[in-house]
Design goal:
Elements: H1 4-13, H2 17-27, H3 39-48, H4 53-56, H5 64-74, H6 79-90, H7 96-101, H8 111-122, H9 127-140, H10 147-155, H11 162-178, H12 180-189, H13 194-205, H14 212-220
């Protein structure tokens, strides 16, 4: 079981200053402290420390990489254990990268059970907690059965903060790619925030998974 000092030493040994500067610019959050370790290395450490959440969760959240590993270790837990810890973890989300990578595979087998958590986090006023709800829908729920649920959340997105708006657009684009006709019918309802609609259509039209004809039809919408 790794100690905090050992973890910091390992992270610093894997640091890349050019990557740190690049990633810092991408995160667009001056309050996030980075050591500069690439995501595959962080995931490898988290996988190695699987089962050590009790210890890792006590580490201070002074570096992006530590919080990332903390969330990643939690995401490897069985569903029952994961949901006991998730409220405390979503409170730590302060950037899009940690938010988007915090996806526990155990949710895939417990979609109905997890819907109340999605609602709770979507109703939260914090930007990245709200984004987490939408990204979780994107990761696990873009299938025929849950399209009405997704459309309801998209209708409820209005005048959102930047990273929530972008998550909603990303979710819309994925629906258009995987369920094109249903997605187009939803767009024609006219009950969607204009910024989300425009960005979602843009993202869908950039996808290689749609035909030229489908992209032109979206352009018309």
């Amino acid at each position: 079981m790794i100690t905090y000092e050992e973890l910091l030493a390992e992270l610093r040994a894997n640091a890349d200053e050019k990557y740190r500067a690049f990633h810092k610019k991408l995160l667009k959050n001056d309050n996030v402290n980075l050591i500069g370790v690439r995501i595959p290395v962080l995931r490898s450490i988290a996988k190695r420390e699987k089962g050590s959440f009790a210890a890792v969760s006590a580490f201070p959240d002074e570096f992006y990489e530590v919080t990332f590993i903390k969330c990643s270790v939690a995401a490897l837990m069985p569903y029952g254990d994961f949901v006991k810890e998730i409220d405390g973890l979503v409170c730590l989300l302060d950037n899009w990268a940690t938010c988007d990578c915090f996806q526990a595979k155990c949710i895939a087998k417990h979609k109905e059970e997890f819907l109340p958590y999605i609602e709770k986090y979507f109703a939260d006023g914090r930007e990245f907690v709200r984004r987490f709800a939408l990204v979780t829908l994107l990761e696990f729920y873009v299938e025929e059965k849950y399209l009405p649920v997704i459309f309801d959340y998209l209708r409820r997105c209005s005048n959102e903060k930047y990273y929530v708006m972008m998550a909603a657009a990303w979710l819309l684009a994925e629906v258009l790619v995987k369920h094109y006709e249903r997605g187009c019918a939803f767009l024609r309802e006219g009950n969607l925030d204009g910024a989300i609609k425009r960005k979602g259509i843009q993202k869908a039209r950039e996808s290689f998974r749609l035909t030229s004809e489908q992209k032109e039809k979206l352009k018309g919408i």
